[in-house]
Amino acid sequence: MNKKAIEITPGIEPLYGTRDENLRLMEDGLHVNIDLRSDAIHVTGPDDAVNRVVGIFSDFDSLRKSGVHLHNGELHGMLKLVIADPAVTLRSLMDAGKQRSAGVKRMVQPRSPNQRKYVESIEQSDMTFGLGPAGTGKTYLAVAMAVSALVAKKVSRIILVRPAVEAGERLGFLPGSLQEKVDPYLRPLYDALYDLLDPMKVDKLLESNVIEVAPLAFMRGRTLSDAFIIMDEAQNTTIEQMKMFVTRLGNNSKAVITGDLTQTDLPNPKKSGLLDALNVLSGVEGIKFCHFEDVDVVRHHLVQRIVRAYDSYGKAQQQLPLPIGEAVLAGSPLAAEAKHIPKPQ
How far is residue 267 CA from its own chain's centroid? Predict the structure, then answer.
């Protein structure tokens, strides 16, 4: 066991987190004891773990002095990454984020180990699938990586694709041009674009077709070269549509396909193109599959608990052979009588 005292420097308080949640994260993740005193912060634990805590405090202090001010949500996510991997430091994460975020309003920074794998897969592979529950940053990170590639002139355009399937509703005929008909379905992608770039710049890029909105239905026959292509809500594609989409890739292009298999709006969820691609394309060189879990949810804390509750309920329902009400009715005399009721002629 080792014990070290860390000097309390001005402006170090944000590292503690809301109600000291970041200190508790370090304690639980690195198996150390952190004791806040009036004169210093005392850290007790194994040598390696104590040195890593000292390194976190040192990195945070040097970043703050260089003008980097992290808000708590972002800092908490970065600390998770630092604790999960001994080779990662706050400074290295910040440097990587700055490289990705050149020319972008907000820094592109993964907040969980799975998000980090996802971002690295997009950088290294030509086609990446991001599968997981709502709020895990699948779409936002994909758009951020696309904008980063466009600004760095790695690609000459961004193509946004989404199946036009309503979420359990029938909206009927939508007025306006093709662009205006498809826009409501692509709102989440637009929201991410406006969050990362100045609104006037986004409008200009859309007008000049550098950022293109392409309905999935009209993708057949096209070769998409020198482009960063994102297909969102891929769980709502049919098997035929998915096969058509993944074969559109041209030279110097990347594709990111995101979806949540638990939120399929198709009449038959088993016919989802995303589910089929998961089985067919797994193991193909150049294609990476990244799976997210409820712990990766970066929206409100309540969303994480909601996702977990639905998962638990779904698993429990699968184990039941028949709903209780139906089982009771099936064995009741009423059910037997119902079988013998003559049909009206």
Answer: 25
Mean pLDDT by 10 residues, the chain (345 residues): 86 87 91 89 91 91 84 81 88 78 71 88 94 88 91 92 62 60 74 88 92 82 92 90 92 94 80 91 92 80 79 76 51 49 49
pTM above 0.85, yes or no: no
Cβ atoms < 10 Å from Cβ of 106: 14
Q: How far is residue 336's CA from residue 216's CA, in Å, rounded to a whole number?
A: 50
Q: List Cβ neighbours of 73 (8 Å cut-off, separation of 6 or more).
A: 111, 298
- Taking the C-alpha atoms of residue 196 and residue 141, their distance in angstroms, rounded to an integer, is 10
| Cα–Cα distance list, 303 to 128, 137, 263, 298, 300 (Å) | 25, 13, 15, 9, 5
**Residue 20 has what DSSP assignment?**
G
Alpha-carbon distances of 166 from 169, 170, 239, 265, rounded to whole Å: 6, 6, 18, 7
Structure tokens at 310: 């639905």
pLDDT value at position 67?
82
